[in-house]
Amino acid sequence: MPPHRPTLDLPFVRQQFPALGGDWTFFDNAGGSQILKPVVDRITDFLYESNVQLGATYAVSQLATERVAAGAKAMATLINAADPAEVILGPSTSALLRMLAQCFRPTLQQGDEIVVTNADHEANISPWVELEREGMVVKTWRVNPTTFELDLADLEALLTPRTRLVAVTHSSNVLGSINPVRAIADLVHAHGALLCVDGVAFAPHRRVDVQALDVDFYTFSLYKVYGPHQALLYGKKELLLALPGYNHYFIEDTAIPYKFQPGGSSYELSYSLTAIPEYFEALAQHHGKSGDADPLDQAFDLIQQHEGELNQRLLSFLHSRPKVKIIGRDTADPTQRVSTISFVVDGLSSDQIPPLLDAHKIGIRYGHFYALRLIEDLGLLPQQGVVRVSLVHYNTVEECDRLIEKLEEVL
């Protein structure tokens, strides 16, 4: 018999998120998750106990310095980076990717090629496309409009000896599909190029292991991973050392990550990040940590299992409605998709549906979700984009059933 797999203890999970004690059901989590209580507590602790500049000799400054460093170290643990110096913290994924593109620019020559997708959030497209103005060649790896897949064969056809970088999403914030990042990395590296992955829509749902994925750059928003409004950019140490900096001219090239953080990162938000991996570790411990298993892996295994049940519930209902078309993989398999589920309804504009649920205090959303190129290429812009229901592990089966009950009245 297979070993018993514990079921996610939802009461325990929801106790960690004070906002879930209110009247609203949150199904717009891909836009921003609810925040863990210890994260907020540590923001307050920093501001009350250590709200001074870093790097001085006096004790309070030393405490502040240690706390900010602890935040970067916690994020290195969360993503299994080899060194906390590989973790750059900043205000948003969009800002960090724009910074990366600007730092990457001097390493390129006219005619060098960059591949982007039409499935990414614009944050991982525009900064690279704009390099066309300076003589770079940008190619687009397009989603198959029938299967909604990014096919590896299509990427291989775009790669040439001049390809320098491929920018791709780990999971589309519209389609919900999990892309095979390790296989993409192997293909890209075989052609001598680098890989930059937007993990914003993936990181709240599954463990990110940058070493196992062998990515060169990886970024995501921490306010979508139960933390504060901050973001993370990982880069392999040797690449970060080689890139020109984004800070003042006198900041040494070896000063990573600081040379990419003008003004430094937000001190209080950085310290608050220490609570995020602690939460996942506590989740594993609560469910009975098994042997030498990595508690973060164990926690995300529990999350995947629960989200698979939510996927099955909602997708089964949507499949049963003849006027509904699911935009993305129609499988509920949590190894193939996260619980971000988009659809359109024949005869209804997408902007008509979410307001009908507002009165029931169920929060969902419609639109292009900054994946405008994808929505345009799929011909969905006249329909006002898609309706998106984005669930995370703190959502319950009962909440999902209540959503289905109200959608039945609408669809």
UniProtKB/TrEMBL annotation:
Q: Where is the Aminotransferase class V domain?
A: 26-403
Gene3D superfamilies (UniProt xref): Aspartate Aminotransferase, domain 1 (3.90.1150.10), Type I PLP-dependent aspartate aminotransferase-like (Major domain) (3.40.640.10)
TM ranges are none
Top-level taxonomic group: Bacteria
Q: InterPro entries, from UniProt?
A: Aminotrans_V_dom, Cys_dSase-rel, PyrdxlP-dep_Trfase, PyrdxlP-dep_Trfase_major, PyrdxlP-dep_Trfase_small
Descriptive protein name = Cysteine desulfurase-like protein
